[in-house]
DNA sequence: CTAGTTTTTGATAGTTACTCTCATTTCATG
DNA sequence: CATGAAATGAGAGTAACTATCAAAAACTAG
């Protein structure tokens, strides 16, 4: 997260990339996602439209890039092996979230708000989550020693991902979308319920 | 499912719609999704390109239209109220699947195969599933008498949807995508595991 | 610092999904 | 059959992408 890129080239690329993301976010908020063109974003970031597509394969990707999922997975992997899988996942997520600066929270809040509003983005965000499911399933398999395509492993991974999906935004709970500490507490409770066994009366 | 449309107009529209879907499916299989243009589909179905977009808002929708989700929800609702929620969902799904003709299974198999192959379609299919989650959650709320935004309800809906996501294709389990009786059995087992409580050692 | 190599960029042209508008055709109804 | 409503086709326009190629910027060696 703090690995400073070395060469001038790398620094410039990182800068351009960040500029594109920030201006895109700003313009989307100001004018709406659909009515903001890639050309406008490129112009605001002072690069050519071609360059935009060199940094992001589609207009959607400029806000869909998710920097944290792999970090969370790594944090989960780093938990002591004797810990129960759900507990490991919970702690891993908590560690990462606790490491967020207020700026990151704010950026993430704005991002999630957009995801909640634009259906095409929501769709792709869901897809990302389903890929997270695969990673979580892999971790579960490692920890239990069972094969990754074991039904019990898949079901567990699915259930955990489903709880995350149901409890966190984009746009799921009451009111406007926002990721905050509160949401995280709810997630903790949700996983807790799953662990104890759901009330399936 | 068998409500015959009355007027000539309705019949023609249904025919055009079906023709567009079938030719699209065929062309996608023959040439690939990306390299098939909407114009080609329209031509094959003998309508103008404009007409295509009158029937389907986007190229994606021509294969994404899901006819069965609402049917399943209705079937779940129809289960006796004293039945446990998971059991109701399981029976509802079984009833609907059992009503499928071999032709429907075959069409569904081809559809799922495409969904598994084309990432953009997978993304939207996942989004559909997440909307199914909302419906399932609503049903759970009705049956338990709890409010729909109760955390326990949301967590349960999420877990159920997650299991469905993890166990069914598109493209999740081993081998190529296909929906068959086997997949359904796996789904039954998966839900069963969830109901009994997952092995969360 | 210079010269040569590689990487990144910008400009241009082209394809295709999708939108809007309007005239024409096709069905429904009295 | 006549009149109104709904569906279609045709045309022009926008914007997201793709491919190509030449110019510019950055790394590397001498």
Automatic annotation (TrEMBL), chains A, B:
Residues in the signal sequence: none
What keywords is this UniProt entry annotated with? DNA-binding, Transcription, Transcription regulation
Describe the location of the HTH tetR-type domain by residue ranges.
Answer: 14-74
Pfam families given in the database record = TetR_C_14, TetR_N
What Gene Ontology molecular-function terms does this entry list? Answer: DNA-binding transcription factor activity; transcription cis-regulatory region binding
Question: Which sections of the sequence are annotated for DNA binding?
Answer: 37-56
Designated name of the protein: Transcriptional regulator, TetR family
UniProt source species: Actinoplanes regularis
């Amino acid at each position: 997260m703090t690995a400073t890129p070395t060469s001038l080239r790398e620094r410039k690329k990182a800068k351009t990339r960040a500029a594109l993301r920030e201006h895109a976010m700003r313009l989307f908020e100001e004018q709406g996602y659909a009515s903001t063109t890639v050309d406008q974003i490129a112009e605001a970031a002072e690069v050519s439209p071609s360059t935009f597509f060199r940094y992001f394969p589609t207009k959607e990707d400029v806000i869909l890039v998710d920097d944290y999922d792999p970090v969370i997975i790594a944090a989960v992997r780093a938990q002591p092996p004797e810990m129960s899988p759900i507990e490991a996942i919970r702690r891993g997520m908590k560690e990462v979230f606790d490491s967020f600066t207020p700026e990151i929270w704010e950026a993430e809040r704005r991002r999630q708000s957009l995801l909640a509003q634009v259906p095409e983005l929501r769709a792709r965000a869901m897809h990302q989550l389903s890929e997270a499911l695969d990673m979580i399933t892999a971790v579960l398999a490692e920890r239990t020693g069972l094969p990754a395509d074991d039904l019990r492993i898949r079901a567990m991974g699915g259930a955990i991902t489903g709880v995350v999906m149901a409890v966190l935004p984009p746009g799921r709970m009451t009111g406007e979308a926002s990721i905050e500490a509160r949401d995280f507490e709810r997630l903790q409770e949700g996983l807790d319920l799953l662990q104890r066994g759901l009330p399936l009366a």
